[in-house]
Amino acid sequence: MIYDVTVIGAGAIGTSVAYHLCQKGFSVALIDHGDIANGSSSHCDAVALISDKAPGLDTQMGYASIQHYGELAKTFSYDFEYDRKGCLYVCETEEEYAAASAYAKRQASDGYDMHMVDAQTLQEMEPFLAKDLLGGIWTPGDIAVCPYKVCFAFVEEGKKQGLQVYPYTHISRIRLSADHAVEAVETDRGDILTKRVINCAGVWAPDVGRLVGLEIPIQPRKGMNLISEPTERIVWHKVMEFGYMMSKFESINFRRNVSPLVEEYNVAFNIEYTKADNILLGGYRGFRGFDVRSELEAMQAIAERGIRFYPCLKEINCIRSYAGVRPYVKDHLPIVSAVDTIPGFYIAAGHEGDGICLSPITGKLMAQLVAGEPTDFDIQKLSFSRFANAQQTA
Fold this sequence. Notes:
Layout (H helix, E strand, L loop, with lengths): L1 E2 L1 E4 L3 H12 L4 E4 L15 E2 L8 H19 L11 E5 L2 H16 L5 E4 H7 L9 E5 L3 E2 L2 H13 L4 E3 L4 E6 L5 E6 L2 E5 L2 E3 L5 H6 L8 E10 L9 E4 L1 H6 L11 H5 L2 E7 L5 E8 L9 H14 L8 E11 L6 E4 L6 E5 L5 H17 L23
Parallel strand pairs: 1-12, 2-3, 2-13, 3-9, 5-15, 13-20
Antiparallel strand pairs: 4-8, 5-7, 6-7, 10-11, 11-12, 14-17, 14-18, 15-16, 16-17, 19-20
């Protein structure tokens, strides 16, 4: 088997990368140790937002990706449930409102459609919200998609252009030449001769990196959500608490007035409706290794925080919960990069909770890198070389 490029990992990032490479005319093999969307991409929420991004490159990538989703929704034959529902970030305190206002003003000054709404407007937009909230940020361009259907959509569209998919395939070795260039990927289904490998394995990217002697600084960070019984509509947009920003970016010096249980499990409220009339309620971020079991106390903390913002939730049954692991990088930016010391080896991983959002733009940027074309914008900050300890170990 001979391919121009071999992509490892069939989640939202890997399937997008594979599709966009096919668009460039490359012959592509897509390998995963499980099925398509088997990992993080089927254990997450369903939105693509700019309202949870740091100003600058983070937002620039999110916006470009959301616009690309809109284009793909029009051209793909596979429906991935594109929904331009918009996002509300709600504020409990004057301090939060001031911080949110400054954030929204900065984003608006950069040209993004984001502005503050007052308490009355909040109630008009979301009548079941708690009545004591001061206002929030409204970002009408934020969207929702079905995460695992995004993966299948990229695969199905890629197959039309020759994409070959190898699910349930174990990689034993990535063979390098004497000058450390990629030569082949050895698997339990035979060797794949290829001059380029793209590591899109998410939380498992470090395992793939070690096959070529690299230490990739990605850790699994657990997230968890609750799902309600089908119910009448109580929420019309993606709604989050501005405290989520404090939960996501630990460097922000802010402390919420929450219970010890909510504090312990780092729970920040977010809620959205689903196509099946369920409510998806989150969320929690914690470091538990690869353990994706639901934790009862974390579930209680999520429910507690949800009821604070939507009191009617206490009358609605929770029918299940699920958890997944996100590929966490300390500086909250993904790695989208060639590896200078290993010709033909690339990394597209470390998106944490933004893998679904950044899937389209990551695929586009990586295809441009492989093709030797200028990227849509400067991605030097996403280089693997930014890590002081990013070095070959073998």
